[in-house]
Amino acid sequence: MSNPILLAPGPVQLHPEVQKILAHPMIHHRTPEFDQILSHALSGLKFLFQTKQPVLMHTSTGSGAMESALVNLLNPGDEVLAIVSGKFGERWAEMAEIFGGKVSRLNVAWGSGVHAEDVRTYLKNNPQIKIVMTQACETSTATVHDIKLLGEIVSETEALLLVDGITAVGAYPMPMDAYKIDALIAGSQKGIMLPTGLSFICLSEKAWAKAQTAKTPRYYFDLRKELKANQNGETLFSSPVPLVKSLEYVLSMIQKTGFDLHFKEIKRRADFTRAIGQKMGLTLYSKSPSDSVTAFNLPADIKGVELRAHLEKKYFVTVMGGQDQAKGKILRLGHMGYILDADMINTMELLALALADFNFNVNPADVRRMSEAWLKENPL
Ligand SMILES: Cc1ncc(COP(=O)(O)O)c(C=O)c1O
Which one of 46, 53, 93, 328 is most buried, counting C-beta atoms within 10 A? Predict the structure, then answer.
Protein backbone atom coordinates (compact mmCIF):
# COMPACT_ATOMS: atom_id res chain seq x y z
CA MET A 1 0.00 0.00 0.00
CA SER A 2 1.25 3.52 -0.77
CA ASN A 3 0.33 6.27 1.73
CA PRO A 4 -0.51 5.77 5.39
CA ILE A 5 -4.23 6.19 6.04
CA LEU A 6 -5.56 8.35 8.85
CA LEU A 7 -9.23 7.63 9.50
CA ALA A 8 -9.47 8.79 13.09
CA PRO A 9 -12.40 10.91 14.29
CA GLY A 10 -9.90 13.78 14.30
CA PRO A 11 -7.30 14.78 13.46
CA VAL A 12 -8.19 14.08 9.85
CA GLN A 13 -6.51 13.81 6.45
CA LEU A 14 -5.91 17.22 4.89
CA HIS A 15 -6.98 18.40 1.45
CA PRO A 16 -3.88 18.73 -0.81
CA GLU A 17 -4.62 22.44 -1.27
CA VAL A 18 -4.61 22.93 2.52
CA GLN A 19 -1.24 21.19 2.69
CA LYS A 20 0.07 23.69 0.13
CA ILE A 21 -1.38 26.68 1.98
CA LEU A 22 0.27 25.53 5.19
CA ALA A 23 3.63 25.71 3.42
CA HIS A 24 3.18 29.33 2.21
CA PRO A 25 5.69 31.93 3.39
CA MET A 26 4.60 33.54 6.65
CA ILE A 27 2.86 36.90 6.65
CA HIS A 28 2.17 39.11 9.66
CA HIS A 29 -1.28 39.01 11.19
CA ARG A 30 -1.60 42.80 11.45
CA THR A 31 -1.57 43.51 7.72
CA PRO A 32 -4.28 44.46 5.20
CA GLU A 33 -3.64 41.14 3.43
CA PHE A 34 -4.41 39.12 6.54
CA ASP A 35 -7.35 41.38 7.52
CA GLN A 36 -9.06 40.37 4.33
CA ILE A 37 -8.43 36.66 4.88
CA LEU A 38 -9.75 36.94 8.44
CA SER A 39 -12.86 38.77 7.32
CA HIS A 40 -13.63 36.06 4.70
CA ALA A 41 -12.99 33.32 7.25
CA LEU A 42 -15.26 34.90 9.86
CA SER A 43 -18.12 35.33 7.41
CA GLY A 44 -17.59 31.75 6.17
CA LEU A 45 -17.93 30.55 9.75
CA LYS A 46 -21.36 32.20 10.03
CA PHE A 47 -22.37 30.22 6.96
CA LEU A 48 -21.00 27.01 8.48
CA PHE A 49 -22.78 27.54 11.80
CA GLN A 50 -25.92 28.70 9.95
CA THR A 51 -26.30 31.71 12.17
CA LYS A 52 -26.81 35.46 12.13
CA GLN A 53 -24.55 35.74 15.19
CA PRO A 54 -20.79 36.28 14.98
CA VAL A 55 -18.67 33.14 15.28
CA LEU A 56 -15.47 33.69 17.25
CA MET A 57 -12.15 31.84 17.12
CA HIS A 58 -9.63 30.86 19.73
CA THR A 59 -6.12 29.58 19.11
CA SER A 60 -6.67 26.42 21.12
CA THR A 61 -7.85 22.87 20.75
CA GLY A 62 -11.57 22.17 21.01
CA SER A 63 -11.36 21.87 24.79
CA GLY A 64 -10.43 25.57 24.85
CA ALA A 65 -13.82 26.44 23.35
CA MET A 66 -15.48 24.17 25.95
CA GLU A 67 -13.75 26.23 28.63
CA SER A 68 -14.58 29.48 26.84
CA ALA A 69 -18.28 28.64 26.84
CA LEU A 70 -18.14 28.14 30.60
CA VAL A 71 -16.04 31.14 31.62
CA ASN A 72 -18.23 33.40 29.53
CA LEU A 73 -21.61 31.99 30.54
CA LEU A 74 -21.33 30.58 34.05
CA ASN A 75 -21.65 32.34 37.38
CA PRO A 76 -20.03 30.45 40.25
CA GLY A 77 -22.87 28.72 42.08
CA ASP A 78 -25.05 28.38 38.96
CA GLU A 79 -26.85 25.06 38.73
CA VAL A 80 -25.86 23.10 35.64
CA LEU A 81 -27.38 20.00 34.06
CA ALA A 82 -24.67 18.05 32.23
CA ILE A 83 -25.71 15.29 29.85
CA VAL A 84 -22.94 12.73 30.28
CA SER A 85 -22.91 9.91 27.76
CA GLY A 86 -19.19 9.40 27.35
CA LYS A 87 -15.72 10.77 27.92
CA PHE A 88 -16.28 14.25 26.53
CA GLY A 89 -19.52 14.80 28.43
CA GLU A 90 -17.65 13.86 31.61
CA ARG A 91 -14.82 16.28 30.72
CA TRP A 92 -17.26 19.19 30.31
CA ALA A 93 -19.06 18.38 33.55
CA GLU A 94 -15.71 18.36 35.39
CA MET A 95 -14.78 21.71 33.85
CA ALA A 96 -18.09 23.24 34.96
CA GLU A 97 -17.39 22.03 38.51
CA ILE A 98 -13.89 23.51 38.46
CA PHE A 99 -15.36 26.88 37.51
CA GLY A 100 -17.79 26.73 40.43
CA GLY A 101 -20.92 25.30 38.81
CA LYS A 102 -23.19 23.07 40.89
CA VAL A 103 -23.36 20.24 38.42
CA SER A 104 -26.04 17.54 38.21
CA ARG A 105 -25.18 14.77 35.79
CA LEU A 106 -27.82 13.19 33.60
CA ASN A 107 -25.97 9.94 32.95
CA VAL A 108 -26.84 8.19 29.71
CA ALA A 109 -25.66 4.65 28.93
CA TRP A 110 -22.61 4.73 26.66
CA GLY A 111 -23.74 4.22 23.06
CA SER A 112 -27.25 5.61 23.61
CA GLY A 113 -28.68 9.01 22.77
CA VAL A 114 -30.24 11.00 25.58
CA HIS A 115 -33.99 10.65 26.03
CA ALA A 116 -34.80 14.33 25.54
CA GLU A 117 -38.04 14.08 27.52
CA ASP A 118 -35.91 13.28 30.60
CA VAL A 119 -34.35 16.72 30.17
CA ARG A 120 -37.80 18.33 29.89
CA THR A 121 -38.91 16.65 33.10
CA TYR A 122 -35.69 17.55 34.90
CA LEU A 123 -36.02 21.22 33.94
CA LYS A 124 -39.69 21.28 34.99
CA ASN A 125 -38.75 19.94 38.41
CA ASN A 126 -35.61 22.12 38.68
CA PRO A 127 -36.41 25.54 37.22
CA GLN A 128 -33.29 26.96 38.90
CA ILE A 129 -31.04 25.24 36.29
CA LYS A 130 -29.07 27.93 34.42
CA ILE A 131 -27.14 25.82 31.92
CA VAL A 132 -27.78 22.55 30.09
CA MET A 133 -24.73 21.13 28.37
CA THR A 134 -24.36 18.28 25.93
CA GLN A 135 -22.30 16.92 23.09
CA ALA A 136 -24.01 16.90 19.69
CA CYS A 137 -21.96 13.79 18.89
CA GLU A 138 -20.27 12.03 21.81
CA THR A 139 -17.15 11.00 19.90
CA SER A 140 -16.04 8.42 22.46
CA THR A 141 -19.15 6.36 21.68
CA ALA A 142 -19.84 7.58 18.09
CA THR A 143 -23.32 8.54 19.23
CA VAL A 144 -25.54 11.52 18.41
CA HIS A 145 -28.10 13.30 20.57
CA ASP A 146 -31.25 14.97 19.24
CA ILE A 147 -30.09 18.59 19.47
CA LYS A 148 -33.12 19.97 17.63
CA LEU A 149 -35.47 18.57 20.25
CA LEU A 150 -33.19 19.60 23.12
CA GLY A 151 -33.14 23.12 21.66
CA GLU A 152 -36.95 23.23 21.65
CA ILE A 153 -37.09 22.02 25.23
CA VAL A 154 -34.39 24.25 26.72
CA SER A 155 -35.46 27.38 24.83
CA GLU A 156 -38.78 27.29 26.70
CA THR A 157 -36.88 27.82 29.97
CA GLU A 158 -34.47 30.38 31.42
CA ALA A 159 -31.56 27.97 30.92
CA LEU A 160 -28.94 28.20 28.18
CA LEU A 161 -28.22 25.19 25.94
CA LEU A 162 -24.47 24.70 25.41
CA VAL A 163 -23.59 22.25 22.64
CA ASP A 164 -20.18 20.71 22.01
CA GLY A 165 -20.37 20.30 18.25
CA ILE A 166 -16.72 19.31 17.86
CA THR A 167 -17.55 16.20 15.79
CA ALA A 168 -20.80 17.61 14.39
CA VAL A 169 -20.19 21.07 12.93
CA GLY A 170 -19.08 20.61 9.33
CA ALA A 171 -19.85 16.89 9.45
CA TYR A 172 -23.65 16.86 9.50
CA PRO A 173 -26.32 19.56 9.77
CA MET A 174 -26.11 21.58 13.02
CA PRO A 175 -27.89 24.87 12.29
CA MET A 176 -27.23 27.01 15.36
CA ASP A 177 -30.16 29.43 15.01
CA ALA A 178 -32.79 26.99 13.74
CA TYR A 179 -31.95 24.52 16.55
CA LYS A 180 -32.11 27.31 19.18
CA ILE A 181 -28.62 26.55 20.49
CA ASP A 182 -27.22 29.16 22.90
CA ALA A 183 -23.54 28.26 22.58
CA LEU A 184 -22.21 26.05 19.80
CA ILE A 185 -18.57 25.08 19.72
CA ALA A 186 -16.36 23.37 17.14
CA GLY A 187 -12.73 22.37 16.67
CA SER A 188 -10.54 22.65 13.59
CA GLN A 189 -9.24 19.09 13.30
CA LYS A 190 -12.60 17.38 12.76
CA GLY A 191 -15.47 18.47 10.51
CA ILE A 192 -13.56 21.62 9.60
CA MET A 193 -10.82 19.51 8.05
CA LEU A 194 -7.77 21.43 9.30
CA PRO A 195 -4.90 20.58 11.60
CA THR A 196 -5.51 20.89 15.35
CA GLY A 197 -5.15 24.40 16.75
CA LEU A 198 -8.29 26.46 16.23
CA SER A 199 -11.54 26.30 18.15
CA PHE A 200 -14.77 28.13 17.44
CA ILE A 201 -17.67 29.38 19.48
CA CYS A 202 -20.92 31.11 18.66
CA LEU A 203 -23.40 32.56 21.18
CA SER A 204 -27.10 33.30 20.80
CA GLU A 205 -28.51 36.71 21.83
CA LYS A 206 -29.74 35.10 25.05
CA ALA A 207 -26.21 33.88 25.76
CA TRP A 208 -24.55 37.20 24.87
CA ALA A 209 -26.78 38.92 27.43
CA LYS A 210 -25.38 36.62 30.11
CA ALA A 211 -21.81 36.85 28.78
CA GLN A 212 -21.81 40.60 29.47
CA THR A 213 -22.11 40.09 33.22
CA ALA A 214 -21.03 36.50 34.01
CA LYS A 215 -18.68 36.52 37.01
CA THR A 216 -16.29 33.65 36.30
CA PRO A 217 -12.78 35.12 35.78
CA ARG A 218 -11.74 35.14 32.12
CA TYR A 219 -8.86 36.67 30.23
CA TYR A 220 -7.63 34.74 27.18
CA PHE A 221 -11.15 33.50 26.40
CA ASP A 222 -13.01 36.77 27.05
CA LEU A 223 -15.49 36.75 24.17
CA ARG A 224 -16.51 40.38 24.75
CA LYS A 225 -12.96 41.50 23.94
CA GLU A 226 -12.57 39.01 21.09
CA LEU A 227 -15.77 40.31 19.49
CA LYS A 228 -14.57 43.90 19.76
CA ALA A 229 -11.25 42.95 18.14
CA ASN A 230 -13.07 41.14 15.33
CA GLN A 231 -15.27 44.19 14.76
CA ASN A 232 -12.03 46.13 14.24
CA GLY A 233 -10.90 43.56 11.68
CA GLU A 234 -8.46 41.78 14.02
CA THR A 235 -8.19 38.91 16.46
CA LEU A 236 -7.56 39.73 20.13
CA PHE A 237 -4.21 37.90 20.25
CA SER A 238 -1.73 36.81 17.57
CA SER A 239 -3.44 34.83 14.82
CA PRO A 240 -2.18 31.46 13.62
CA VAL A 241 -1.99 32.78 10.08
CA PRO A 242 -1.47 29.47 8.20
CA LEU A 243 -4.48 27.94 9.98
CA VAL A 244 -6.72 30.92 9.27
CA LYS A 245 -5.66 30.95 5.61
CA SER A 246 -6.47 27.24 5.40
CA LEU A 247 -9.77 27.86 7.16
CA GLU A 248 -10.69 30.46 4.58
CA TYR A 249 -9.96 27.91 1.85
CA VAL A 250 -11.96 25.08 3.45
CA LEU A 251 -14.96 27.29 4.14
CA SER A 252 -15.04 28.61 0.60
CA MET A 253 -14.76 25.02 -0.66
CA ILE A 254 -17.75 23.94 1.47
CA GLN A 255 -19.73 26.97 0.29
CA LYS A 256 -18.97 26.14 -3.34
CA THR A 257 -19.86 22.47 -2.85
CA GLY A 258 -23.03 23.37 -0.92
CA PHE A 259 -24.17 21.81 2.34
CA ASP A 260 -26.32 19.16 0.66
CA LEU A 261 -23.49 17.58 -1.29
CA HIS A 262 -20.89 18.17 1.43
CA PHE A 263 -22.94 16.37 4.09
CA LYS A 264 -23.99 13.69 1.60
CA GLU A 265 -20.33 12.81 0.97
CA ILE A 266 -19.72 12.30 4.69
CA LYS A 267 -22.95 10.36 5.21
CA ARG A 268 -22.04 8.10 2.29
CA ARG A 269 -18.73 7.27 4.01
CA ALA A 270 -20.59 6.48 7.23
CA ASP A 271 -23.18 4.34 5.41
CA PHE A 272 -20.40 2.52 3.56
CA THR A 273 -18.41 1.82 6.72
CA ARG A 274 -21.45 0.61 8.64
CA ALA A 275 -22.55 -1.62 5.75
CA ILE A 276 -19.17 -3.22 5.04
CA GLY A 277 -18.24 -3.56 8.71
CA GLN A 278 -21.46 -5.43 9.39
CA LYS A 279 -20.98 -7.62 6.30
CA MET A 280 -17.56 -8.48 7.75
CA GLY A 281 -19.30 -9.72 10.89
CA LEU A 282 -18.75 -6.74 13.18
CA THR A 283 -21.59 -5.07 15.08
CA LEU A 284 -22.31 -1.41 15.74
CA TYR A 285 -21.59 -0.11 19.24
CA SER A 286 -23.97 2.85 19.06
CA LYS A 287 -27.75 2.69 19.10
CA SER A 288 -27.82 6.24 17.73
CA PRO A 289 -24.89 6.20 15.29
CA SER A 290 -23.21 9.36 14.04
CA ASP A 291 -22.29 10.15 10.45
CA SER A 292 -18.99 11.65 11.60
CA VAL A 293 -17.57 8.51 13.26
CA THR A 294 -18.51 4.84 13.46
CA ALA A 295 -17.73 2.54 16.38
CA PHE A 296 -17.67 -1.24 15.98
CA ASN A 297 -17.75 -3.75 18.81
CA LEU A 298 -14.77 -6.07 18.66
CA PRO A 299 -15.13 -9.80 19.24
CA ALA A 300 -14.50 -10.61 22.91
CA ASP A 301 -11.33 -12.62 22.17
CA ILE A 302 -9.64 -9.75 20.30
CA LYS A 303 -7.75 -7.19 22.35
CA GLY A 304 -8.58 -3.84 20.76
CA VAL A 305 -5.40 -2.10 21.88
CA GLU A 306 -3.28 -4.79 20.21
CA LEU A 307 -5.38 -4.83 17.04
CA ARG A 308 -5.12 -1.07 16.65
CA ALA A 309 -1.35 -1.13 17.15
CA HIS A 310 -1.07 -4.00 14.64
CA LEU A 311 -3.13 -2.10 12.05
CA GLU A 312 -0.84 0.86 12.41
CA LYS A 313 2.45 -1.02 12.43
CA LYS A 314 1.80 -3.64 9.75
CA TYR A 315 -0.79 -1.92 7.54
CA PHE A 316 -0.16 1.82 8.13
CA VAL A 317 -3.79 2.51 8.98
CA THR A 318 -4.61 4.73 11.94
CA VAL A 319 -8.08 4.42 13.40
CA MET A 320 -9.03 4.89 17.06
CA GLY A 321 -9.86 2.47 19.80
CA GLY A 322 -12.20 2.96 22.73
CA GLN A 323 -11.67 5.20 25.73
CA ASP A 324 -12.33 4.65 29.44
CA GLN A 325 -14.99 1.92 29.84
CA ALA A 326 -14.84 1.10 26.10
CA LYS A 327 -11.03 0.83 26.03
CA GLY A 328 -9.88 -2.25 24.13
CA LYS A 329 -13.47 -3.17 23.23
CA ILE A 330 -14.31 -1.03 20.23
CA LEU A 331 -12.75 0.40 17.09
CA ARG A 332 -13.70 3.89 15.88
CA LEU A 333 -13.36 5.01 12.26
CA GLY A 334 -13.74 8.67 11.31
CA HIS A 335 -15.58 9.94 8.24
CA MET A 336 -14.46 13.59 8.26
CA GLY A 337 -11.65 15.23 6.31
CA TYR A 338 -10.19 14.54 2.88
CA ILE A 339 -11.10 10.92 2.19
CA LEU A 340 -11.06 9.25 -1.21
CA ASP A 341 -13.07 6.15 -2.11
CA ALA A 342 -9.74 4.35 -2.46
CA ASP A 343 -8.94 5.18 1.18
CA MET A 344 -12.23 3.65 2.28
CA ILE A 345 -11.79 0.48 0.24
CA ASN A 346 -8.19 0.06 1.39
CA THR A 347 -9.12 0.68 5.02
CA MET A 348 -11.79 -1.99 5.04
CA GLU A 349 -9.55 -4.50 3.29
CA LEU A 350 -6.63 -3.76 5.60
CA LEU A 351 -8.91 -3.96 8.62
CA ALA A 352 -10.04 -7.38 7.37
CA LEU A 353 -6.40 -8.46 6.96
CA ALA A 354 -5.58 -7.30 10.49
CA LEU A 355 -8.63 -9.07 11.91
CA ALA A 356 -7.69 -12.23 10.02
CA ASP A 357 -4.22 -11.99 11.62
CA PHE A 358 -6.10 -12.23 14.94
CA ASN A 359 -7.95 -15.36 13.72
CA PHE A 360 -11.22 -13.57 12.99
CA ASN A 361 -13.12 -15.37 10.27
CA VAL A 362 -13.10 -12.89 7.38
CA ASN A 363 -11.91 -13.00 3.79
CA PRO A 364 -10.04 -9.76 2.91
CA ALA A 365 -10.41 -10.27 -0.86
CA ASP A 366 -14.19 -10.59 -0.43
CA VAL A 367 -14.19 -7.44 1.65
CA ARG A 368 -12.41 -5.57 -1.13
CA ARG A 369 -14.91 -6.84 -3.72
CA MET A 370 -17.89 -5.95 -1.50
CA SER A 371 -16.46 -2.50 -0.85
CA GLU A 372 -15.89 -1.73 -4.52
CA ALA A 373 -19.37 -2.98 -5.39
CA TRP A 374 -21.03 -0.92 -2.61
CA LEU A 375 -19.37 2.28 -3.75
CA LYS A 376 -20.31 1.62 -7.37
CA GLU A 377 -23.93 0.94 -6.42
CA ASN A 378 -24.04 4.06 -4.24
CA PRO A 379 -22.47 6.86 -6.25
CA LEU A 380 -22.58 10.40 -4.93
C1 LIG B 1 -16.95 15.73 21.21
C2 LIG B 1 -15.57 16.18 21.57
N3 LIG B 1 -15.44 17.10 22.53
C4 LIG B 1 -14.23 17.54 22.89
C5 LIG B 1 -13.08 17.08 22.32
C6 LIG B 1 -11.75 17.59 22.75
O7 LIG B 1 -11.18 18.32 21.72
P8 LIG B 1 -9.61 18.65 21.72
O9 LIG B 1 -8.89 17.37 21.82
O10 LIG B 1 -9.43 19.35 20.41
O11 LIG B 1 -9.36 19.55 22.88
C12 LIG B 1 -13.17 16.10 21.31
C13 LIG B 1 -11.95 15.54 20.72
O14 LIG B 1 -11.90 14.43 20.24
C15 LIG B 1 -14.45 15.67 20.92
O16 LIG B 1 -14.57 14.76 19.94
Answer: 93
